[in-house]
Design brief:
Elements (H helix, E strand, L loop, with lengths): L1 H14 L6 E5 L4 E4 L1 H7 L3 H4 L15 H8 L3 H4 L4 E8 L6 E13 L2 E10 L4 H4 L4 H20 L9 H14 L5 E4 L6 H11 L7 E5 L5 H13 L2 H5 L8 E5 L6 H11 L2 H7 L3 E6 L3 H6 L5 H7 L2 E4 L10 H13 L8 E2 L1 H9 L5 H15 L4 E2 L6 H12 L10 H19 L4 H8 L3 H10 L5 H5 L1
Parallel strand pairs: 6-9, 6-10, 7-8, 8-9, 11-12
Antiparallel strand pairs: 1-2, 1-5, 3-4, 4-5
Length: 467
């Protein structure tokens, strides 16, 4: 142990003389040293960062010290003894300015074990050099670059996308953030409707107060009535002595599952004098799978509530129509799973990406997140491979490969009824062993009626005609 400490002390002394940003991470992924170059790059004092774990994640706020240590985190391959150079983005604590840099990771071994990892940060010399790392680390860098671009353009990076369909969504989010009007999100289950609503709320005027979600499909009528009464109709300043405890946003998911009576009561209250005062301090946000116009047409929404909730509308596309985002979204879920985990996963293998890109994702982003998290738990290496994918994903791929049952032509109704009637009469005759009287009794009709049916169906014999 004494030899190990002295080696670290000598290393620290040498690195303090280096102008370029340098840092040292121990075998537990904790930052044990950062020189003045790292302090200038991140805006954090070394004393604020040392001792913190360096986890492979992204998307943290610049004011969060874990954002700085995440930028320094070595891929799992480095912890296994491999030298790597990896492009990263650094966000300065004070200015929030993002810069691209290249980190050269050098694992320092004692016999077979990696004891320390030395990191040296340099400029990115060229696109070729930046892309010389593995495809896995490239996706991490692409995610960081995309977050940087979105932060620069829209002031936020919790929603990652390069898909053209999402450009309009980003613009609508900006409009919604700068107002207090009601917002309605339309899209399939799992497309991130609540996430969008939360992003708008926390960046808006009422963002310091709670965001309260209610799922109108899952809650009973009594539960919904009680919750809405407490949240909306309660006089908060009277009930609690402080209006600051009032929610800043109420999100009614699957709002078309709200009973028409409750919709009318909500509309009446929110358009009253007390309701107007409530809306001045709290925003109403809603979601549905179908467009609100179609819900109004089939009377799933009352006219009053329709106009109340649709001041701003945001339509979210399904994941299958924005597969250009699949890799950065999958990588973001990997990095979310890394947060707080003792096992750090660098990314996803190319074979897995190919399977992901061939899948239809009926559960959209929620399903992708669940699949990645399950694979992360099963993964004992640095890369998620096909062997780590959960059974439900493989089962979904198999079901998808079978495809839907082929459509069969619909038989004309008259033909179908005639065929069924003929088969039924023949079955009665067979059971009655040819006796018309018994067959008529089994069918619940008179004997003359049976004769007429036999003639109509082309089943009459000379004996029937004689009768």
């Amino acid at each position: 142990m004494a030899r190990r400490i002295s080696r670290k002390q000598r290393l620290d002394s040498m690195l303090n003389l280096v102008v370029s940003p340098c840092f040292v991470i121990d075998a537990d992924r904790r930052l044990v040293f950062a020189n003045s170059g790292c302090e200038q790059l991140t805006g954090w004092a070394a004393s604020d960062l040392t001792g913190r774990k360096c986890e492979l994640t992204s998307g943290l706020a610049a004011k969060d010290p874990d954002a700085a240590t995440a930028s320094l985190a070595p891929p799992q391959e480095v912890m296994a003894g491999q030298r790597l150079q990896v492009p990263r983005y650094f966000v300065h604590r004070e200015t929030a300015r993002s810069v691209a840099r290249l980190i050269h990771f050098f694992p320092l071994k004692d016999e077979e074990d990696v004891l320390l990892v030395l990191g040296i940060v340099t400029d990115v010399p060229s696109a070729k050099a930046a892309g010389s790392s593995s495809i896995v680390t490239e996706v991490h860098a692409e995610l960081a670059a995309l977050r940087h671009e979105l932060r620069q353009r829209y002031g936020r990076d919790s929603i990652v996308s390069r898909a053209p369909q999402l450009r309009r969504v980003f613009e609508q989010i900006e409009i919604a953030t700068s107002s207090t009007s009601s917002v309605h999100c339309t899209g399939e289950v799992g497309t991130g409707r609540e996430h969008i609503a939360r992003a708008i709320h926390y960046a808006g005027e009422f963002g310091q107060r709670p965001f309260v979600p209610l799922n109108c499909r899952d809650l009973s009528l009594a539960e919904l009535e009680g919750a809405i009464h407490r949240l909306v109709e309660t006089g908060w300043s009277e009930a609690t002595g402080s209006a600051t405890l009032q929610p800043g946003a109420i999100f009614l998911a699957e709002v078309d599952h709200l009973s028409r009576d409750l919709q009318s009561r909500l509309d009446t209250f929110l358009n009253s004098e007390r309701g107007a005062a409530f809306r001045a301090r709290c925003r109403l946000m809603t979601s549905s799978v179908r467009a609100p116009e179609s819900l109004l047409a089939v009377e799933r929404l009352t006219e009053g509530l329709f106009y109340l909730i649709t001041a701003l509308q945001i339509e979210l596309p399904p994941l299958r129509s924005r597969l250009v985002d699949l890799r950065v979204l999958g990588q973001s879920f990997v990095e979310q799973a890394n947060r707080g985990s003792s096992h750090q996963v660098t990314g996803v293998s190319e074979d897995v990406w190919r399977q992901f890109e061939a899948y239809n994702w009926p559960g959209n982003l929620d399903e992708l997140r669940d699949i990645v998290q399950a694979a992360h738990r099963a993964c004992e290496s640095s890369i998620i491979s096909t062997a780590h994918l959960p059974f439900r994903f493989r089962n979904g791929m198999d079901a998808q490969s079978l495809g839907p049952s082929p459509d069969t032509a619909l038989e004309p109704l008259d033909t179908l009824l005639a065929r069924v009637e003929r088969e039924h009469v023949l079955a009665a005759l067979e059971r009655a062993r040819g006796s018309r009287a018994k067959a008529a009794k089994l069918l619940g009709i008179s004997r003359p009626s049976l004769y007429r049916k036999l003639e109509t169906l082309g089943l009459a014999s000379d004996e029937d005609a004689a009768d």
